[in-house]
Q: What sequence folds into this?
């Protein structure tokens, strides 16, 4: 739609001068019509050897009527219907008094065109039909020529064609305006859609960055604390903890590089081509938590190799964020269980922990009110947004006897449609 819109804009300057100077334009048109009427009044269509010019001279009355009718055309835009009435009355007066009459009716033709082009179709019918009838009737009744003469038929035809031409111009102008508005609306809609997609992509990248940073920095923090605690008494365990810190930081850098690579422009170096995280690499994720001191059990009904990409990534990130919250908030002795089950057209992901029960623990301490998976802060919001983006649901709540449960239901159909639309 950009090309038609550009075409409409190129046509705008051709209409700018008449629109900016309507009075000057109408004055020039009135002068041209007056010149044509005066010139035609010297012609005789019934000369001895055919039409002749200069064989008759218009009377003073006819000249006054022509000047008055032409002067009325200056106001054709401001009051088109009264101009038709004035020019029609002057034309009828000339048809009644003059034989042969001067062509004052030329002004009526212009006035009828103006009414048809600047009003609506019902108004054109209400004004044009009586004007045609009165003018043609006056010509037939007061002319010495037969009723079927070419002057009478020509008057009827010219007034009718003026109304039809004006209506056609009005219809085309309305069509062009509608097309222009449609093109502008489509352009605005496309810009809004582009802005919406950019905002959605930014939100998705922000969620990925949060998941990567929160998970790996939490592991680095825990292992660094372990290394500092046992550095003097058990250097071997401290060395193993520092190795875990190095591995977690390297993994974080790799995922950050892959995520930030999406922001590069077309001329930048190619982004990493390694696959996005998914359930295929769930076991290495759980091994990282196990090495950090969080026992994790996994239950899977199948390997889920045919999942939509969006569901695969969302399930992986939900498990990652939930276990990160368990490691940070559920206490050192907490254990976790992960369940990934495919039920019909949905994937159910459940993460449980047996952290300390909510109760008298101090606010803000590990195991305090809200401790466990539900203490994720922005992470919990991110998990809900991931599930909602796929048309699914995510529920979080405490378990009887302590701990928390995260349960996400991710439908396949909505995710597949989103992949096709993207």
A:
């Amino acid at each position: 739609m950009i090309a038609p819109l550009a075409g409409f804009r190129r046509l705008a300057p051709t209409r700018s001068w008449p629109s900016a100077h309507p009075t000057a334009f109408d004055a020039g048109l009135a002068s041209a019509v007056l010149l044509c009427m005066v010139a035609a009044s010297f012609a005789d269509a019934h000369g001895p050897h055919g039409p002749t010019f200069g064989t008759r001279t218009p009377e003073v009355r006819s000249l006054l009527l022509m000047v008055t009718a032409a002067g009325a055309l200056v106001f054709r835009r401001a009051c088109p219907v009264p101009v038709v009435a004035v020019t029609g009355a002057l034309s009828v007066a000339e048809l009644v008094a003059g034989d042969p009459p001067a062509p004052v009716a030329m002004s009526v033709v212009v006035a009828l065109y103006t009414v048809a082009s600047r009003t609506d179709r019902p108004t054109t019918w209400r004004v044009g039909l009586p004007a045609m009838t009165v003018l043609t009737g006056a010509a037939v009744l007061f002319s010495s020529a037969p009723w079927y003469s070419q002057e009478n038929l020509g008057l009827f035809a010219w007034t009718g064609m003026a109304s039809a031409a004006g209506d056609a111009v009005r219809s085309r102008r309305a069509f062009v305006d509608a097309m222009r508005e449609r093109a502008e609306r489509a352009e605005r809609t496309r810009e809004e859609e582009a802005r919406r997609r950019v905002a959605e992509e930014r939100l998705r990248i922000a969620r990925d960055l949060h998941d990567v940073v929160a998970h790996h920095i939490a592991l680095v923090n825990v292992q660094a604390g372990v290394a500092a605690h046992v550095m003097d008494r058990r250097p071997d365990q401290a060395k193993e903890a520092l190795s875990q810190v190095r591995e977690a930081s390297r993994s974080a850098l790799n995922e950050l590089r892959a995520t930030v690579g999406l922001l590069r422009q077309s001329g930048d170096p190619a982004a990493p081509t390694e696959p996005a995280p998914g359930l295929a690499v769930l076991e290495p994720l759980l091994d990282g938590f196990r090495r950090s001191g969080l026992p994790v059990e996994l239950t899977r009904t199948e390997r889920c190799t045919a999942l939509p990409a969006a569901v695969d990534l969302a399930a992986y990130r939900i498990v990652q964020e939930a276990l990160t919250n368990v490691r940070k908030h559920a206490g050192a002795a907490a254990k976790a269980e992960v369940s990934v089950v495919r039920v019909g057209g949905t994937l159910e992901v459940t993460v449980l922990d047996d952290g300390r029960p909510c109760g008298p623990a101090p606010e803000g301490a590990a195991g305090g009110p809200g401790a466990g998976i539900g203490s994720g802060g922005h992470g919990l919001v991110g998990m809900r947004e991931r599930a909602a983006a796929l048309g699914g649901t995510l529920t979080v709540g405490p378990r009887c006897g302590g701990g928390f449960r995260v349960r996400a239901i991710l439908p396949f159909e909505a995710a597949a449609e989103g992949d096709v639309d993207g």
